[in-house]
Design a protein that fits this description.
Layout: E1 3-7, H1 13-28, H2 34-43, H3 47-54, E2 59-66, E3 69-78, E4 91-99, H4 108-122, E5 127-133, H5 137-145, E6 149-158, E7 161-171
Parallel strand pairs: 4-5
Antiparallel strand pairs: 1-2, 2-3, 3-4, 5-7, 6-7
Helix pairs in contact: 1-3
């Protein structure tokens, strides 16, 4: 099974917003309050914010396609758009990687990760990193199995809840 990545253009903003909300809700809704989720959607995942991110030349958004169907999306940050300073010149960040729940557990995430690593190598980067909520045990196990190592922590604010993200990195 193989996925393809396709660049997301500004014309797809409403589709990206819909998928962003759906996948975030599927992933974290059952572990967080409705109020905190609503706060996040209103303040951090809205049309204005996504448009700004899509227009930033140091961020790349991709549709994750399986059998020509959109099953998720990905956001990569380079240079000064990274959410933390990590080996600034040699690193890049996966800020968001979401696959619809009914496509998870089929090995597709592994394929996406391989493609991300290749993208980074082709741009000259040597270190890939991301933040994973400490309560997301499945994601932590997946990235650990792929060779990522925890190197730091940071706070991810979700409404009134200050959550801890583990920063995990991989030499590529």
């Amino acid at each position: 099974m193989s996925v393809t990545l396709d660049s997301i253009r500004i014309q797809s903003l409403s589709k990206l917003l819909q998928l962003s909300v759906q996948t975030f809700e599927e992933t974290f809704g059952h572990q967080n309050t409705k109020e905190n989720m609503a706060w996040y959607f209103k303040t951090k995942m809205n049309s204005k914010q996504l448009k700004k991110e899509l227009q930033n030349p140091n961020s790349d958004f991709y549709w994750i396609l399986f059998q020509k169907k959109i099953i998720g999306y990905l956001k990569l940050n380079f240079n000064d758009t990274q959410t933390e300073v990590v080996n600034f010149e040699d690193s890049f960040e996966i800020q968001r990687i979401y696959i619809l729940s009914n496509f998870q557990g089929k090995g597709l995430g592994q394929d996406v990760l391989s493609k991300v690593i290749l993208l980074g190598k082709n741009k000259g980067y040597t270190f890939l990193w991301l933040g994973v909520w400490e309560q997301n045990k499945d994601a932590i196990a997946f990235y650990t199995k792929k060779g990522f190592k925890i190197f730091e922590k940071h706070v991810f604010q979700l409404g009134t809840d200050s959550q801890t993200d583990l920063l995990m990195g991989l030499e590529i």
